[in-house]
Amino acid sequence: MGFFNDLGKKTTETTSKIAKETKLKMKISENKGKIKELYEDIGTKVYEKYIREENINIKEDLAEQCSKIKELSVEVEEARKEILKLNNKKLCEKCFAQIDKDMQFCPKCGEKQNEEKTVFENAEEKLENAEISLENVKEAEIVKEELEQKNNEQ
What we know:
Layout: H1 2-51, H2 58-61, H3 63-86, E1 89-91, E2 98-100, H4 119-129, H5 137-153
Antiparallel strand pairs: 1-2
């Protein structure tokens, strides 16, 4: 029975991952469509001002569209990062090729990859580098022990 339970669990995890990835891809596509519409709106406004021989003040006339494009672009990038994370991949720091998260060198360009620290490692490093007053030293030691324990559990 253990085999079938493991198989069912693995199937559920895979299906969940595929559903999350599909949802993220749909969000990316939707946001890219909105960005394209905003670009067209910007172009239309610029052309209309050109035809009427009016001056174009980008900060005033296009600020709303530009800030919306920036916001949507950030959402697209966050969704791309989440898809990479779901697939245990990362982008090469030099050529931006998708590579396995654990690779030390990019197979495409050969660039050495920096090791990504876990959230716990980052928190522990910040705790070690922090200036802690004498009355808070004991509390800091407890926090450090809890971080190490949680890191070992994962």
